[in-house]
Specification:
With 207 residues, the chain is an alpha+beta fold. Helix content is 53%, strand content 14%. It has two domains: 86 residues, Helix Hairpins; 118 residues, Heat Shock Protein 90 (2-Layer Sandwich), CATH 3.30.565. A hairpin with a 2-residue loop joins strand 2 and strand 3. The radius of gyration is 20 Å and the shape is globular.
Length: 207
């Protein structure tokens, strides 16, 4: 076997390993999100009073789960960066099915807050399923976390196709972001003093 053929063979094998790692990471992420949610709720006493030792143990377990989740996210990010230089996947992504996975992963938080999450008919899209999961998980989780005091969180996800583009909107009744902070919402790691979220977020992309 010549050197060029060997390089091609090695590249194919490497791609297969990355795909397998990304697949495993994707499958692990939802259960980890559920575990973290329940541990946080236990520590906060959402299921009833707990002792100081139990609260401390739940928080330590939640931190350990978060560290594992960071490793999973790193694996998915590496896969996304690898795929970014290539064409989009051939298969279309069913966003309603993806959002079912998201709400299943956040089931503990949705139940604890009594939230209403409505997903209207959505168009099929092409993209990175792992990254789309992460975006929607963050948006829904923020809507639950930063609801207005005394109000039941309500999240509505809508979408429309316009020619070759798709726009997805995530609406909630959260506390919102102060006007003076709006220019910084896409700065990495920036968080407002009130730790609030937008009332509505939009995601645009090509079909």
């Amino acid at each position: 076997m010549d050197a060029r053929a060997q390089r091609r063979r090695d590249a194919v094998r490497s791609d297969g390993v990355r795909r397998d790692a990304a697949s495993v990471a994707h499958d692990i992420r939802s259960p980890l999100a559920t575990v973290s949610s329940y541990l946080d709720l236990i520590a906060e006493g959402a299921f009833g009073p707990v002792s100081t030792d139990t609260r401390s143990a739940a928080r330590r377990a939640a931190e350990a789960s978060s560290r594992v989740r960071s490793l999973v996210e790193s694996t998915l990010l590496l896969h996304a960066e690898t795929m970014a230089a290539r064409s989009l996947p051939e298969g279309a992504i069913d966003l309603r099915a993806l959002l079912r996975d998201v709400t299943d992963a956040l089931g503990a938080e949705i139940a604890a807050t009594g939230a209403e999450v409505t997903v209207e008919p959505l168009p099929l899209v092409r993209g990175d399923q792992s990254q789309l999961f992460r975006v929607f998980e963050n948006l829904v989780q923020n809507a639950l976390k930063y609801a207005r005091p005394g109000e039941t969180p309500c999240v509505t996800i809508t979408g429309r196709a316009d020619g070759g583009r798709v726009e997805i909107a995530v609406h909630d009744r959260g506390v919102g972001i102060p006007q003076e902070e709006l220019s910084r919402i896409f700065e990495r790691f920036h968080q407002t003093d009130s730790a609030s979220t937008r009332k509505a977020g939009k995601i645009s992309g090509r079909r």
